[in-house]
What we know:
Layout (H helix, E strand, L loop, with lengths): L12 H10 L1 E5 L2 E7 L7 E6 L8 H29 L3 E7 L7 H18 L1
Parallel strand pairs: 3-4
Antiparallel strand pairs: 1-2, 2-4
Amino acid sequence: MYTFSKSERLCNRTLIQNLFLNGQSISEDFIRLVYLKSNQTQKHLKSQIVVPKKNVSGAVERNHIKRQIKESIRKNKFVLIDFFKENKIYMNCAVIYQSRNKYPSNIIEEKIIILFKRLISKL
């Protein structure tokens, strides 16, 4: 349950293009969640983490932020997955970091939890 395996990552180029062209989004301060219902039935949630080079120029800092986001998704995705399993929903999503500043992991985790709850209420 508390994993973020390869099968849960959104890697398919056409799915990613479709997500950004047709998806809807929710924002919470410096994190944006783009989501789109999927036709595929392998995993209930496939996600991608985006930290633009434009906002965070150093690769080490970008990777650190990605690790923080990945960890908070890994720890809190069970809320989404339980809801998706009950309602038979399959979803692709991208978590986009939109700040030039670095934040501690607990603040990032709070924002991710808020986004997940808002996504559930929107569906």
